[in-house]
Specification:
The complex is a heterodimer of chains A (about 400) and B (about 525). The relative contact order of chain A is 0.15. Chain A has two domains: about 5-170 and about 345-385, 3-Deoxy-D-manno-octulosonic-acid transferase, N-terminal domain (Rossmann fold); about 190-340, Rossmann fold, CATH 3.40.50.2000. In chain A, helix 6 (about 130-135) links the parallel strand 5 and strand 6 (about 145-150). In chain A, helix 1 (about 15-30) packs parallel to helix 3 (about 50-60), helix 1 (about 15-30) crosses helix 13 and helix 11 crosses helix 12. Chain A has about 400 residues and is an alpha/beta fold. Chain A has helices at about 15-30, 40-45, 50-60, 75-80, 100-105, 130-135, 200-205, 210-225, 240-245, 275-285, 310-325, 325-340, 345-365, 380-385; strands spanning about 5-10, 35-40, 65-70, 85-90, 110-115, 145-150, 165-170, 190-195, 230-235, 250-255, 270, 290, 305-310. In chain A, the strands form two sheets. Chain A has a seven-stranded parallel beta sheet, sandwiched between helices. With about 525 residues, chain B is of the alpha/beta class. Chain B folds into three domains: about 1-140 and about 330-340, Glycogen Phosphorylase B (Rossmann fold, 3-Layer(aba) Sandwich), CATH 3.40.50.2000; about 145-325, Rossmann fold; about 355-515, no CATH class. Chain B is built from 19 helices and 19 strands. A seven-stranded mixed beta sheet of chain B has the order 17-18-16-15-14-13-19, sandwiched between helices. In chain B, strand 3 (about 55-60), helix 2 (about 65-75) and strand 4 (about 80-85) form a beta-alpha-beta unit. At the A-B interface, helix 4, helix 5 and helix 14 of A face strand 7, strand 8, helix 8, strand 9 and helix 9 of B.
């Protein structure tokens, strides 16, 4: 009996799905290994609307993968026993919020190569803003063997010295997403405003969320005067507006689809507080503005070079520029992309990931001997939970 | 004879110590006409129900045992403690102040003590020199020679044909205070790797308790140099694992906590049909001829078809087990020991009518509940951060600079009349009737440290601990007059040193304890 070789993706936060998805299909296409999903029980609890479980189940079916659900490190240990290959996580670090994933990496047998993916443009342990530093400190570390960064090392200013040798510059996995517009896509209405009010960026230095929503409502009021509409997109993990039942004006459409199902290119413009979605919109080549508080407390220096807006006048001026000087805005964004040392060619990013996964899965041994016949190990409660689940109960 | 074994909860009925020692003695003692029961501590009623004449406390290290042992001893009943672990003799270890104080406080109530090894007895008699000790060897339930021989032969044959060395490890993987269990396995695991020298691939299976399976310990298992399968321990799986293993690995480290342990892992291993390989401290020396100390010898014996435990040597093992832990013999020795105890006199009348338990920094709600159930006052000191419906709460009052007491109805009833007249209804009581009064200033030395009640730091708690607790005790005396007080403290290094009761300890030990 050979050890079973797997490319196993850990799924813990809701936004992990968006990051791992392109690599799941890449691995299925390029590698001769089983694909598996190691899903934390907390992921299931977080996904109250089952949106992401449906996405996960679809992905798992597409690649004929196996799915395992674990609650404790012991269960993860038992699932990984006897297997080898690559373990990939989209959110792993020594921060408490990532402990499920971090512990799974810690207890993984040495037959696994462990890879942590940078999961956002600004991302703890890779590139942090001032609010990240306040909330999490500047020495975030990983249990991974390899960490896949979006940018060249000089731009990843939060990489701890101990983690630098682990860095592999892959570029963002999300650039490999091919947007697939489904029948459930809401009508594309005006510009796209993205909220990430749950984020430490908007909480650590003050209550910036309130002022963001204030100016958003004022902006909506002005649009209404001219019969214009707008789309609001809640952060996939935070879902602040929906969870808190924030009353929205009539002309606001909600787009809560996974990012890879959003027809980003069709929106007239994009506005967001500092967040990875800014980069998504820049890459989709629509005019983008980065919102910040009018007191200048928030740190948006990692987005320097893009149009920044604060009060209502700025929002209106940006909307006017979108209509009158669209090319100027897009040219500004092109220069921003040239300045940050990040691979943005999807083919190049694909090659980098494919090389990493192919080499990684070759270097691990798939033939540690186990003699045929009955093992002397006994099966109890851990063995029962370590079996693959056949359905997620959707 | 009517014997109660008092354990912290029903969960403890299944723990290795209680299961191996008492569940195996129970049928023998009952067959001899004695009553012998495992009783969770919370169901013992110290006031009225004396269904037993001998009470043995096991692993009950909180103030509940101090309260009950004192009450039972004063009622003229024999009270003992079964010492499973040595948390007391390491006097230089500041983590165990509360456990050493627990021993010091329960000692006057004891008329005997029990332990499982001579080494444990030797350590504890230094601390409790006048107390009669009885050793109960872990009893072995016997074995089926044919069944054991068949298991051994099957495992030897499989090892030789597959060149696979099936190794089992079972038991508690952790201890709250000492690195044991899985830590020992990790520390000594290189030995298992040596089997590759002789052409055998080791394959380890581990059965252990859920609590021990933390990320830190599982990380150790993941770094073992041999493949390792993990499962949660159950008694049934333990039997299966041993029967399917060629050998069980029994590493023992040499810290004092580990060197006084009983032989039960080795006995269980051998009686279930696996070879025993023990490294580190020679804990199992009494079973010498069946204990391998190095893997090379074991493998060489297996290769020539003559492992230490085999069909021909099983009679010798039975002889050893008979001498080390025959349950019938252990049962009758226990009865004989207890039967020789001098009868005790019950106290004719209670010396004081008011009894209280005073909670310190490490207050426990289980102690509070027991206290109220058996009509003791449950008293919160100024150091208690737990919010419970205490009968008395003594606290520093920043508004007046004095000290106040807040009292329940039960406490109010026990106050002498002149004191009761000084009380006033307390407006913050919510649904409960509470009464307050200002105490005479007991003279806090460090009251300014407590100005911010929300900033309860450990350093502040430690620096003010002694004076706060002493003042609390003084406050109680000023309220109730003569009062019998028990201290409930579950954290080191806290303990009010003026509240030490006279304990039968020799001068040398007292000096040692004081130094620590």
């Amino acid at each position: 009996m050979m050890r079973q070789k797997y490319i196993l993706f850990i799924v813990n936060l809701l936004q992990d799905i968006n990051i791992i998805r392109p690599l799941v299909y890449l691995a299925a296409r390029e590698l001769d290994a089983g694909i598996g999903f190691l899903v934390t029980s907390r992921f299931m609890q977080r996904d109250r609307q089952q949106t992401w479980q449906r996405e996960l189940a679809q992905m798992c079916a597409d690649v004929h993968g196996d799915m395992f659900i674990f609650d404790t490190p012991a269960e993860a240990y038992r699932i990984l026993q006897g297997k080898s290959g690559i373990l990939i996580a989209a959110s792993e670090s020594d921060l408490p919020g990532h402990s499920d994933t971090h512990n799974a990496f810690r207890i993984a047998p040495s037959s696994f190569l462990k890879i942590t993916l940078q999961h956002g443009y600004e991302c703890v342990g890779f590139l942090q803003n001032r609010e990240h530093n306040k909330a999490h400190g500047r020495n975030v570390t990983f249990a991974a063997d390899i960490i896949c960064g979006w940018c060249e090392p000089r731009a990843l200013t939060a990489l701890a010295v101990s983690e630098r040798p682990k860095l592999y510059v892959s570029g963002p996995s999300t650039i490999l997403q091919v947007p697939t517009r489904g029948p459930d896509h809401p009508p594309v209405a005006g510009g796209l405003v993205c909220e990430n009010l749950h984020s430490v960026r908007l909480r650590t230095g003050g209550n910036f969320g309130a002022s963001f929503m204030d100016v958003f409502f004022q902006f909506c009021g002005r649009l209404a005067e001219h019969g214009q509409v707008i789309t609001l997109r809640p952060h996939p993990g935070g879902q602040y507006v929906l969870k808190n039942n924030v009353q929205l004006p009539d002309q606001v459409t909600i787009n809560n689809l996974p990012m890879y199902r959003v027809n980003l290119k069709s929106y007239a413009f994009g506005i967001s507080a500092p967040s990875t979605v800014v980069l998504d919109m820049v890459l989709a080549r629509i005019p983008v503005a980065v919102w910040h508080d009018d007191g200048g407390v928030m740190d948006f220096s990692n987005y320097e070079g893009l149009t920044d807006i604060s009060g209502l006048d700025d929002w209106l001026a940006f909307a006017r520029d979108v209509a009158a000087r669209r090319d100027m805005l897009l040219d500004r964004q092109r220069r921003f992309l040239e300045r940050i040392p990040m691979p943005t060619d999807p083919k190049e990013v694909y090659r980098r990931f494919a090389r990493l996964l192919a080499n990684g899965s070759d270097t691990v041994s798939g033939t540690i001997a186990s003699v045929p016949g009955q093992s002397h190990a006994v099966d109890g409660s851990l063995a029962r939970v370590a079996r693959p689940v056949t359905a997620l109960g959707l | 004879m009517k014997i109660a074994i008092i354990v912290p909860s029903e969960d403890h009925f299944a723990t290795a110590g209680v299961r191996i020692r008492y569940q195996r003695l129970k049928p023998r003692l009952e067959a001899a006409g004695h009553r012998f029961e495992l009783v969770p501590i919370d169901t013992v009623d110290a006031r009225s129900e004396h269904s037993f004449n001998t009470y043995i406390f096991c692993k009950c290290h909180d103030a509940r045992s101090l309260i009950l042992a004192d009450a039972l001893a004063r009622a003229g009943l024999h009270v003992g403690v079964d010492f499973f672990d040595d948390y007391y003799s390491q006097t230089r270890d500041s983590r165990f102040v509360h456990l050493r104080e627990w021993l010091r406080n329960i000692a006057p109530s004891l008329s005997f003590a029990i332990c499982s090894t001579e080494r444990m007895r030797a350590g504890l008699t230094v601390l409790l020199p006048d107390l009669p000790f009885h050793i109960i060897n872990d009893p072995c339930d016997g074995l089926d020679p044919d069944h054991v021989a068949a298991s051994i032969e099957k495992n030897v044959e499989r090892a030789l044909s597959t060149r696979q060395l099936d190794v089992g490890w079972f038991g508690m993987g952790d201890n709250p205070h000492f690195p044991v269990g899985l830590s020992d396995l990790f520390a000594f695991s290189e030995i298992l790797m040596q089997s590759r020298r002789w052409g055998f691939e080791p394959r380890l299976s581990v059965l252990t308790n859920k609590r021990s399976m933390t990320a830190e310990r599982l990380e150790m298992l993941a770094r073992l140099p041999v493949a390792c399968a993990l499962e949660e321990w159950t008694e049934e799986l333990e039997g299966q694992l041993i029967a399917n293993s060629l050998l069980c690995f029994l590493p023992v480290n040499a810290q004092p906590f580990s060197t006084v342990k009983s032989l039960n892992r080795a006995i269980t291993t051998l009686a279930s049909g696996a070879q025993a390989l023990s490294t580190g401290y020679p804990l199992y020396a009494e079973l010498d001829s069946f204990i391998y100390r190095d893997l090379g010898t074991l493998i060489s014996d297996v290769e020539r078809g003559a492992p230490a435990l085999r069909r021909e040597t099983i009679p010798k093992l039975l002889e050893s087990l008979e001498a080390l832990g025959n349950p019938d013999v252990e049962a009758s020795k226990l009865i004989s020991f207890l039967g020789n105890m001098h009868p005790l006199q019950a106290e004719s009348a209670p010396s004081t009518s008011v009894q209280a338990v005073v909670h310190g920094v490490g207050a426990l709600s289980i102690v509070h509940k027991l206290a109220q159930r058996i009509d003791l006052l449950s008293v919160a000191s100024p150091l208690t951060s737990l919010e419970l419906d205490f009968d008395v709460r003594i606290d520093f009052d920043p508004s007046t600079g004095g000290t106040s007491a807040v009292l329940s109805d039960a406490a109010l009833r026990l106050l002498p009349e002149p004191v009761r007249q000084r009380t006033a209804p307390c407006p913050t009581g919510g649904k409960r009737n509470l009464y307050q009064l200002v105490l005479e200033n007991p003279g806090w030395e460090t009251e300014d440290l407590f100005l911010d009640e929300n900033a309860r730091s450990m350093s502040v708690a430690l620096s003010t601990y002694a004076s706060r607790m002493e003042a609390t005790l003084a406050g109680l005396r000023s309220l109730f007059g003569p009062i019998r007080v028990y201290v409930s403290e579950s954290r080191s290094p806290y303990w009010p040193h003026t509240h030490r009761r006279p304990v039968c300890i020799d001068t040398a030990f007292r000096a040692q304890m004081d130094a620590a």
